Amino acid sequence: MKTILTGVKPTDLPHWGNYLGAMRPALDLAKAKDVKSALFIADYHALTTIHDPLIMKEMTYAVAATWVACGLDPQKAIIYRQSDVPETFELAWILSCFSSKGLMNRAHAYKAKVQANEEAGKSDLDFGVSMGLFTYPILMAADILLFSADEVPVGEDQIQHVEIARDIALRVNNTYGEILKLPKFVAQKNKTIVGLDGRKMSKSYNNHIPLFLESKKLRKMVMKIKTDSSPPEAPKDPSTSLIFDLYKEFATEEQIQDLRLSYEKGMAWGDAKQVLFELVDQKLSPMRIEFQKLMDDKSYLNQLLHEGSLKAREQGSQLLAQLRKAMGIGA
Ligand code: TRP
To answer: Which residues line ligand 1 (CB under 6 A)?
Structure first.
């Protein structure tokens, strides 16, 4: 039995990039027979940036509803709020006692912040850096190690964090014996989903397509995808077409072949966009309806998250008990 775990911060409504690049692959992994999986909502990680209680609450539900609408089977996978598993935070403290400050200094997110301050000519290079941001990798290590995860599916920007978790686990194990499982990251190779303007799809570039847009808005967005100015009848190259790339993510082999032929024959960009829109709308509509249904039934979501947290806590408290004993903490 292999254990996989991944977390999503409740900061934004998910877009195609999140879904295709991270959520769908994680859900596929979770479906396998010999796999136990935990997919959680990293609300306390989001507290490093989200200080609006309404957004925090609503986005937490939205992430949970997204996982379920996208096919998570709550009977098989565990879904929970990070904040509902207090063992995480006890473990985070323990881990912090085995994490050198230098290790945190080298974390990409922190380094990027320092560099931005440097470039802005700030005299305080730690300007805007909270301890939450600085020790973010330790809390993430606690999420992963508490669950004894074998594999952590993540986007490329999170690989270093999984490696840090491994480093910290090694330190603890060197002191107390093999208690913590050393996790491996699973990164989606070549899975960068490109946004409307041709850059990586990201909310920060504002080039993203939200996952659950209603049809009219979805069509409008798809029509905005950047194309070249070749005339409608000119043959088009599928290998350099963003529309084609996105189509491939949702289409069957046969559908892909058909569109390829149309490209070669010559097809107006507007028509290609229409084909993409129709396919995606058909694929995502049922998920969008399910998402809305879940968002209108918070008590169901609460129950689901609560049940998930009980399972996570059961496993987490066992690990913590073992660790406490090894450390000589408690009676
Ligand atoms: N840091 C991750 C992100 O920003 C979210 C996260 C928190 C996470 N804890 C995790 C991911 C544990 C995987 C495993 O996307």
So the answer is: 5-7, 9, 42, 45, 140, 143-144, 152, 154, 158, 161
